[in-house]
Amino acid sequence: MKRAYWMEIKTEFLKLVRMKTYSVSTVLFPLMFYCFFGLAMGEYAPHGMHMARLLLATYGAFAVMGAALYAFGVGVAVERGLGWLELKRASPMPPQAYFVAKAAVSMAFGALVVLLLFGLGAAAGGVRMPAERWLGMGAALVAGSVPFCALGLAIGNLAGANSAPAIVNLIYLPMAFLGGLWIPYEVLPPVFRSISPWLPSYHLGQIALNIQRGPAGGPVAQHWEALAAFTLLFAGIAWLAHVRETEKNYG
Asked: Nearest CA to 215 among 226, 201, 225, 202?
C-alpha cells in the first residue's frame, strides 16, 4: 500500500519536472514578479513597512497558489481528457493515492519557490527575521495551499483539457491581484478591497503577513477558518462534478 503511494508521488514529481511549462513558470514567475515589485519598485509600503519584506509574504502566497492550481486544474483536466483517470480507476492502486500524490508534489513545488523567495528577500532585499518567523511563515504558506488544491481539483473535474489552462489563468491572476498579493491590500481601490475578504488568496496573504508582524486584517484564526471553509466548498464542487461525470459515463 505504501509503495503505491510513493510510486505515484515519484511519477507525478518526474512528470511535472519534465513539463517545462509547469516547472519553469511555477518557479520563475513569482521570483520575477517579486524582483519587479518587491525589490525594484520602491522602498516603503503602507504602515512604514519595507516593501521587500511585505511582498515576500504575499508573493509566497502567490507562489503556492500557482503550484497548486496548475498541478490540479490543468493536470487533472488533461489526464481526464486522455483517459488516464479511467485507467487508474481500473488499476489496483488506491483511489486516493492519485490525489495525495498531486497534493504532495504541488506542495513540494510551492515549498521550493517559497524557499527561493526567502533567499532572494534575505540576500537582495535585506529582509531580516528570527528563524521561527521564517519557519512559521513558510509552513503556513505551504499548508495554506490546500484550498487551492481543492479549487484546482474542481476546475480539473469541470473543464476540458484544452480550456483548463485558460480557465486557471482567468481565476488565478485576478484572484492574486484582488487578494492584495501583487500590491499591498491597503492601496487597492475601495471597490476591490470590498471583494478581497471573499477570496482565499486574501486570507492566505493575511496569515503570512501576520506571522511576519505585518498589517493583518483581523485575527489569524478567522483567516484559517475562512481557508477551511473554502477548502470544503471547492472539494464539494469537485466531488459533485466527479459524481456527475461518473453517472454520465456509466449510467
From this structure: 202
Please tell me the pTM assigned to this model: 0.92
Question: Phi and psi at residue 161, in whole multiples of 5°?
Answer: -60, -35
Cell of 70: 496548475
- The model's pLDDT over 158-168, given as tens digits with 9 standing for 90+, comes to 998 899 999 99
**Residue 168: partners with Cβ closer than 8 Å, 6 or more residues away:** 69, 70, 73, 74, 152, 155
In whole angstroms, give the CA distance from residue 95 to residue 97.
Answer: 6
Q: Distance between CA 73 and CA 117 in Å, rounded?
A: 24
Q: What is the CA radius of gyration of the chain?
A: 18
**What is the b/e burial string over 191-208, where b = at least 16 CB atoms within 10 angstroms of the residue's CB?**
eebeebbebbbbbbbbbb
**How far is 184 from 215, CA to CA, in rounded Å?**
10
Contact between 152 and 76 (Cβ < 8 Å): yes
Give the residue among 182, 218, 184, 183 at the shortest CA–CA distance from 203: 218
- The b-or-e profile of 162-179 (16+ CB within 10 A means b, else e) is eebbebbeebbeebbbbb
Comparing CA positions, the residue from 188, 237, 245, 222 lying closest to residue 73 is: 237
CB 32 within 8 A of CB 128: no
User: What is the grid cell recorded at 72?
Assistant: 490540479
CA dihedral 110, 108, 118, 155 (to 10 degrees): 10
pLDDT tens digits, residue range 30-55? 999 999 888 876 566 555 567 888 89
